Amino acid sequence: MVEIQRTQSESSGSLSPSAVEESKYRLLYSKSRVYVNPTAYARDNIPGFVALVKREAVNPTYLLAWIPETLLCEKGTDEWDKFVRIEEKAMLDEEDEDAVLIDLPTQRPESYAFSVPLTSIYSLLVHPPTLSSWHGTIGINLINSSTLPTLHFHDDESFSTTLPFRYSKSNSTGAYPPTSLPSSSRTSTSWGGEDLLSRLRPYAHLLRSTLQPSLFIVDPSKADIDTHTTQIFDDDAVDDILAQSSYASSHSPVPAHRRPRPLHSVPANTSNQHPTRPSVLHRSLYPPSISTTQSSSHARMALLQSFSNITRATRHAAQNILSHPLAKPIVPHLPDPVKSLVNANGDLEWGSWVEKGGVGEFESARVYLARWARIVAEEGDRARKREAQALPSSSDVVEEISPLGVFELLHSTINLPSPKTSRDPAHPIDEALWAKWFDKDGRPKVRLEEMKCQVFRRGITPYGNLRKKMWPFILGVHEWDITDSEREAKWEEKRKRYCEIKDEWCGVPEVFDRPDVLEERHRIDVDCRRTDRTQPLFSTSYEDTADNGSNGDRRYTTISPQMSDIGAQSPSNEHIDRLAGILLTYNFYNKELGYVQGMSDLCAPLYVAMGSDEELTFWCFVEIQNFLRDQSGMKKQLSTLQELISVMDPDLYRHLEKTDGLNLFFCFRWVLIAFKREFPFDDVLRLWEVLWTDYYSNEFVIFVALAILESHRDMILRYLVEFDEILKYCNELSMTIELDSTLAQAEVLFLSFAQLVADIDRRRAEEATDSTSSVLRQRGTSSSEGKASLSKVAMPTLSDNLRDLLKTGR
């Protein structure tokens, strides 16, 4: 027997036999090459073992676990060999002579490992391999409504299918080739997920839902059994109904020429347990004869058409009733399928039916088509760029194929010059150039505006710690036109100010445990534990030590309101606690605003770029913080973006108006956290330093949002006709947007907007001058007045919000 026990501290002394028994976990089943896919990219897939573990005790507990291969490698080859050996035994169906005992699989969220009791699993969502998806999947839903990572079974890589098949001693006779195992020795399974289900059935009751065949309820309750065992008619149920219907009787009130012909019944003297008359599906696939098919098809079509008419009439009646204003109070209490019938216009549109009618996992065909067209268009743009680079340089070619690709600006009534982008991200600012901008005493040689201009056009190199030096100047934390000694003295004052604010709560129990502070601590702790956990600073967790209480200040460096909350969430570490401390200090710094969800998304990249410097991160965060609890700032930005679309792209504006998309909810996340979740982490840093320069506008983020919409306007106008489709399409743009081309388009859009505003002001000034001078002149003929009226062009009205977009400098 192979036995591994948990290591106990020396101070705990010897364990009792019952305690030793409780610490044993027996490995019952394992399957290799079961992947977890954290992202949509195959390179990020994590291979591992899915295992069934038994906790040896008086009342044994069975756990379902997934352990990544890297975690097993850390424990050594012995632990790896145990999982492989159990998998081979499951393949051979051998009886366990020696029990294999392992350590309890540890839950490490950064590696997606988990181990949960079978009693805590509510359901399994099983999707076998198909032609479009080679690898089957199993999704695990827990009783507490949380979902574990989806398991992808790569059977073509699993050890049980790739290793040479080895027979047990009982089957080896020394002869070659060895005799094969009897076919009845083991039930054949088509893929790894089916094998896992067969291994779970001896330890839990798995009920397959009749409503959704891919859903398996684990140890269902009586309510679950009643819900998921609804009788579903067989394929030949229609034939049975028709065989006994009154249509076959001569007393039927239906005229003879309208009656469907009765189907032939099964002979009474047949001894076959299966009916000789095939089902409707089989007869449609394999018609026995033309006459039989024709005689049955009319009856089936007549009955099915009657059913469809009844269903359609019932649906429209339900729509009319539930859409009435008096029915609004009861609508929230109705089941979801019934809610899907409620529509203000009384119509059941395709887009709402897809999202609400029970087939949400199948996306709209228009969304799929728009995504496909976008990919084709992007490939075409890249191909044109490659061809342009290969062709000899000429002025005509450069003007036709620009770095922006196919990008059509607003058509104006006059020939305005076409704006050009000034960005050059291929040559970012480096340490050498930064050093040339300062004298020996630290006083800059260039103006602040020139420095911001270079940052906007070129960006900052990601190598080294140049961002830590430059970002405080861009954000205004450090003053620009002073010496190093003066700058250091001012910074020391801010450092002391930060310590004073932090001392208001750190180490002060009467403040730290106040009810209002407890609430803020809990919100901050929850957000920080799930923010940017892929970054190295936040990916690790505290080591499990027995003497955590030796550090007297340990409680005050943990923001979690209760120590028990730590085990219910993702594990924390030193940097996560320091990040939470910065946000809690900001809560005391700006007591009127406090902490708002999403601040952790803005603060975490600052913490990484500042090299985990608390004081520098805090004051940079203070400068970029523009959150408002009532989100009135967000409302103004989205309203300004709506007005900008109406001026720059009237066609897109009218389309959004038709689809009820003028609320621009699909842009809310973009503007709220400055595209934090739309670009990779490194691109977010490059984007933010461009936005902070305020080189063209204080609200340049709005032009970035407009550039993304303009890049996809053709897809939106051509394929997406529902608000839900536009929302889904824009949400799925995350991590697919190219940053440099988007910033170049945003710059061109701003320059075009500035030209348009200048042209409108010039025309209105000319009209005002003409109207004043016309009073002094004699009235012309009616024909000249007609020509003058025809020459007038209606110019768009610019609100104060649009004119504020031209302001720069805060």
Automatic annotation (TrEMBL):
Q: Does the keyword Aminoacyl-tRNA synthetase apply?
A: no
Q: Which residues form a coiled coil?
A: none
Please list the residue ranges annotated as the Rab-GAP TBC domain.
Answer: 461-695
Query: Which Pfam family is one of this chain's hits?
Result: RabGAP-TBC
What keywords does the record list, in alphabetical order? GTPase activation
* Gene Ontology molecular function: GTPase activator activity
**What is the official name of this protein in its record?**
GTPase-activating protein gyp7
What is the organism lineage in this UniProt record? Answer: Eukaryota, Fungi, Dikarya, Basidiomycota, Agaricomycotina
